[in-house]
Amino acid sequence: MKLLLDTHTLLWGIGNGPLSPTARQAFLDPENDLFFSAASYWEICIKLSLGKLKLVSNWNQLIERELQVNTIRWLPLEKTHCRALVTLPFHHGDPFDRLLVAQASVEGMTLLTVDGNIGRYAIPTLW
Q1: Is residue 60 a contact partner of residue 37, using CB atoms and an 8 Å limit?
Q2: What is the number of structural domains in the chain?
């Protein structure tokens, strides 16, 4: 299964956060292809700069190491992802989450997220 990790899912997955048993199993299952979006990296950087997120000083190195260790692939933001936002309903006001929904839709991925609002979109989610 192709799984797109929501921002909190990656942070919780690499930091022993409160993943559900299903989410943790999916995160650790080597049969799943895990993806981390440029939109999530952007969200982390924005929230750090605003003081809305606190991470260790070497957070970027930790994320890079975890992407390699867990074979998590980088998902760049493409024009097709941005165009999908035009027709996406406004079930969710968070621009980062909307980008993740658009990416999951275009790429045929399941979004690994605890966010119940994302479940209102026509994409598969898992938690």
Answers
A1: no
A2: 1
Q: Which pLDDT tens digit goes with each residue over 45-104?
A: 999 999 999 988 889 999 999 999 989 999 999 999 999 999 999 887 889 999 999 999
Could you tell me the CATH number of the domain that includes residue 116?
A: 3.40.50.1010
Nearest-CA neighbor of 48 among 11, 100, 85? Answer: 11
Separation of alpha carbons 27 and 89, rounded Å: 28
- The residue range of the domain holding 103 is 2-126
Q: What does the pLDDT look like over 5-40, one tens digit per residue?
A: 999 999 988 777 898 999 989 988 999 999 999 999
| Lookup: tokens for 29 | 């299952």
List beta partners, residue 5.
36, 112
- Give the pLDDT confidence score for residue 77 in this predicted structure: 96
Instruction: State phi, psi for 111 to the nearest 5 degrees.
Output: -90, 120
